[in-house]
Amino acid sequence: MQYQVNLKQSEEGYAVWCPSLPGCASQGTTKEEALNNIQDTIQSYLEVAAELNQGIESYYVEVELNHA
């Protein structure tokens, strides 16, 4: 499976995150390191999500946000 990630250069190296997986982010001193790190992070994210969702009914609900 493929996931789109965003890669941004920072003062310390590169930040990388996966917009479709909230909170799934990593970093590296080089582009290559950052991309390798996010692959590991995505794998861990998906494993934890699968564990947390075992035997639990979940569903999406839409909520309306009213602006003042």
From TrEMBL:
Residues in coiled coil: none
InterPro entries associated with the record: HicB-like, TA_system_antitoxin, TTHA1013/TTHA0281-like
HicB-like antitoxin of toxin-antitoxin system domain location: 8-57
Record SUPFAM superfamilies: TTHA1013/TTHA0281-like
Domain of life where this protein originates: Bacteria
Span of the signal peptide: none
The protein's name: HicB-like antitoxin of toxin-antitoxin system domain-containing protein
